[in-house]
Write a structure and sequence with these properties.
Elements lengths: L10 E11 L8 E3 L2 E11 L4 E9 L8 H4 L4 E5 L6 H9 L3 E5 L6 E6 L8 E9 L12 E8 L2 E7 L6 H10 L1 H14 L9 H26 L5 H21 L6 H11 L1
Helix pairs in contact: 6-7
């Protein structure tokens, strides 16, 4: 129903977490003394620009364990440095799941094989490596492809098992990760899903899922009616349309208005 925006890059899912400020009465939402927060762990379908899977924990919930349940075989997890874990890279490959995950520049690298780099490219490094050290027992068991590139004064180091893409495409895939950040910002600001109504874990889940369903319906509406992604202008138009339809419905069922008055009222609001 929604177009695939990046078919040449494979099935991409950005993974990230977001904190929800809770009330002190939400005793289950542990975070720190005097502060309560819950956390959502989200998979965001980068091909179709919509959320795909979600999990809930208290604010202290670790994020890395949710990569594997969010990602299905054949999909590629796209994540930032907070998800760097060499054992995770091994297990994802064993499960037939791929990854494009940024790592820390200071990570120890043991080169297995160097790959050719194109001249005049943003890419300055492309090699098969083992990450970590055997002495510290954190070395990856399987080689990963490590791509280094430079953009706007920043060096990015990306670990991946995607060997069917060029190094430049790996850089493009990681750049797409910012769409999940944009989604969180838009979702919070315009749908106000983090204005808490519920207090229990179940109630919070229902509220957040309602927000996700709303976003999905908006995505379908904006694409089908306007051929556009979700944007606030279309949301405002739709909100106004719904308000006018409700007023028209109220006018039609108002027994105090004559038939002529009803038609006049409906004409004025539509």
């Amino acid at each position: 129903m929604l177009p695939n925006l990046h078919p040449e890059l494979g099935d991409l899912v950005a993974v990230d977490g977001s904190l929800i400020t809770a009330t002190l009465s939400m005793h289950w939402a542990d975070y720190r003394k005097g502060s309560k927060k819950a956390k959502i762990h989200l998979g965001f379908d980068l091909n179709h620009a919509i959320p795909s899977k979600i999990f809930f924990t208290d604010g202290n919930g670790a994020e890395r364990p949710f990569v594997e349940p969010i990602i299905s075989p054949g999909q590629t997890a796209v994540a930032d440095r907070g998800y760097q874990q060499h054992a995770l890279f091994d297990s994802l490959q064993a499960e037939g799941k791929s990854f494009v995950i940024r790592i820390k520049a200071k990570t120890t690298k043991t080169v297995v094989q160097k790959n050719e780099i194109k001249p005049d490219s943003i890419v300055f490094y492309d090699a098969e490596v083992l990450l970590g050290t055997a002495q510290n027992k954190n070395q990856s068991q399987k080689p990963v492809r490590l791509v280094g590139y430079h953009v706007d004064g920043v060096d990015y180091w990306i670990a991946t098992d995607r060997r069917n893409l060029t190094a430049e495409q790996i850089a493009e895939v990681y750049k797409l990760r910012w769409h999940i950040e944009n989604f969180f910002a838009w979702w919070k600001r315009h749908l106000r899903v983090y204005h808490l109504i519920a207090r229990s874990p179940y109630g919070l889940m229902v509220q957040i899922l309602a927000g996700l369903i709303t976003y999905l319906l908006l995505a379908i509406h904006c694409h089908k009616q306007h051929g556009e992604p979700v944007n606030i202008e279309r949301v405002r138009e739709l909100r106004l349309q719904i308000q006018n339809e409700l007023r028209a419905s109220e006018a039609l069922t108002n027994p105090k208005l004559s038939k002529e008055q009803k038609h006049q009222h409906i004409h004025a609001i539509t």
